[in-house]
Design goal:
The chain is mostly helical and 120 residues long. It has one domain. 82% of the residues lie in helices and 0% in strands. The chain has 3 helices and no strands. Helix 1 packs antiparallel against helix 2 and helix 2 packs antiparallel against helix 3.
């Protein structure tokens, strides 16, 4: 995406849609793994949070790396640096939101997993 512009090209929108699909495939893979392992239905709310957050965090790390590389490879200029840092901050804020969101449900599922391991 081009910083400072609210107009997206078809290519940029296609890239966003493709990344969203990759994130959702990752999230779905998390759901499938836990359901195949027998995670009980009463933990579905936690699982929904965990799979969504992990899928988005997985995608966000790629976006962050791409933005950082873009800043380092771009032509030098203070306005560009300001725009790039603002974009990086938005990525960091996005990650921070998911990190906060995922903590409690992830902990509950981890505790369940350890409980199951102790029984096995």
């Amino acid at each position: 995406m081009t910083s400072g512009s609210s107009d997206f090209t078809v290519t940029e929108l296609d890239a966003d849609v493709q990344q969203a699909r990759r994130n959702s495939v990752m999230a779905h893979s998390v759901v499938i793994m836990f359901k195949e392992m027998g995670l009980p239905q009463d933990m579905d709310d936690d699982l929904a949070s965990v799979c969504t957050d992990l899928g988005d965090l997985w995608g966000a790390q790629k976006e962050f790396a791409d933005r950082l590389q873009g800043m380092l490879k771009a032509e030098r200029g203070w306005e560009m640096v300001g725009d790039a840092l603002t974009d990086l901050r938005a990525s960091i804020d996005h990650v921070a939101w998911h990190l906060k969101s995922v903590r409690e449900p992830l902990t509950r599922i981890a505790e369940y997993a350890y409980g199951q391991a102790d029984q096995g």
